Amino acid sequence: MEATPMTKSNQSFLRDITIVATSITAGAAIGSLWHGFGHLRNIYSSDAKRRKRELQKLEKENVERLKSRLVIGCVLGAAAGIGLGILLASPSSEKEE
Q1: What is the chain's pLDDT, residue by residue, as a tens digit (97 residues)?
Q2: Domain map of the chain by residue range?
Q3: What is the full DSSP assignment across 30-48?
Q4: Which of 16, 28, 34, 83 is deepest in the core (most CB within 10 A)?
Q5: CA separation (Å) from 21 to 13, 51, 71, 72, 87?
Q6: How far apart are CA 1 and CA 89, in angstroms?
Q7: Vertex 39: Cα angle to 54 and 28 (nearest 5)
Q8: Predicted TM-score (pTM) of this structure
Q9: Four-residue CA torsion sign, 62, 68, 69, 71
Q10: Could you give phi then psi for residue 18, rounded to 5 degrees?
Q11: To 10 degrees, the CA torsion angle through 29, 30, 32, 34?
């Protein structure tokens, strides 16, 4: 079986898929990290009232709820990554020869 050479359109398609996939992954990571950072920021705050309130809130919430919040942040970040990836991968001024 002979391998077909990469045409310009195949290379462009592969590049577009790579950009979208990278944007989705980066968006998901940033979304979940941002959500987790919100809790950490309050826990390690210099304000004693804020720290106490956050620790009380975390005691009430179970681990499953925190996991679901991280997943929500991940999904929202991935959705933003899809939009960004589509914008970056859209053919702007490329000319096919």
Answers
A1: 566 676 777 777 777 788 778 877 887 787 777 777 776 776 777 788 887 887 777 777 666 677 777 777 778 777 877 777 777 766 654 544 4
A2: 22-87
A3: HHHHHHHHHHHHHHT-S-H
A4: 28
A5: 12, 38, 18, 19, 13
A6: 32
A7: 155
A8: 0.52
A9: positive
A10: -65, -40
A11: 160
